[in-house]
Amino acid sequence: MPDHHAGASYQTVRLKKGEHESPEEGACVMELASMVGREPFGDRPESVSPVIRDFLRDYNDFLDYRRRQDLAALAADVVDSKSRRSIERRRARIAVEWAESLPGKARIESRLWVRLCLLLGRYATAGAYAAGKASAVGSKDDGDRHQRALELIDRLLAEGPPEATEAAAPSSEADRQTALSAEPEPARLS
């Protein structure tokens, strides 16, 4: 597998606002997740749930430097969180309900837009909506809101196991023999 991040380490990169050309410039939490997941460097890693991805990418940019560093621990947790459609739909609904439970009013246009996107299966929009609502509430020093946002991510991750991947084909003759010996023998009719 190619090294997409030569010269930078996910262990030393500091989280910063915005999109970056390379890890040497810094990284947002989703760019860090792409590094941890050994994907091409970018803020839309394929292995991350679209709801979680869009929430964290937008929320990252709202936070002050100190709180943004709290998100670094989540980068590894969200790798391989992308799941089947029913779970992503459930995660989207949870994100919207969470956002609407926050104090303050959302513009009716925003609420209608996110509902339409959910109907159309564009679940990532729910994550961006929730992050936008979180950023509009209180001040940047609102520790309670930040804690609630971190708890939301935990809840979204717990909502469903990642989509099961098909078992890889045995790579060697020995692996094939081991796989064959592990299969139960068919029942015999007497």
Query: Helix content range of the residues, please?
Result: 40-55%
User: How far from one another are the termini?
Assistant: 52 Å
Poorly predicted parts: 1-5, 164-190
Count of helix runs: 9
The helix-and-strand class reads mainly alpha
In this structure, how is the largest beta sheet organized?
Answer: none
Fraction in beta strands: under 5%
Rounded to an integer in angstroms, the radius of gyration calculated over CA atoms is: 20 Å
Shape: globular
Integer average pLDDT? 78
H/E order of the elements? HHHHHHHHH
Number of strand segments:
0
Structure description:
By secondary structure, the protein is an all-alpha fold. It has a domain at 49-73 and 81-158. It is 54% helix and 0% strand. The protein is built from nine helices and no strands. The chain has helices at residues 29-36, 50-62, 65-70, 72-78, 85-101, 108-119, 124-136, 143-158, 173-182. Helix 1 (29-36) packs across helix 4 (72-78) and helix 2 packs parallel to helix 7. The longest helix has 17 residues, at 85-101. The radius of gyration is 20 Å and the shape is globular.
List keywords for this structure.
190 residues; 0% strand; globular; disordered N terminus
Helix-strand layout with pairing:
Layout: H1 29-36, H2 50-62, H3 65-70, H4 72-78, H5 85-101, H6 108-119, H7 124-136, H8 143-158, H9 173-182
Question: What is the structure about, briefly put?
Answer:
The protein has 190 residues and is mainly alpha-helical.
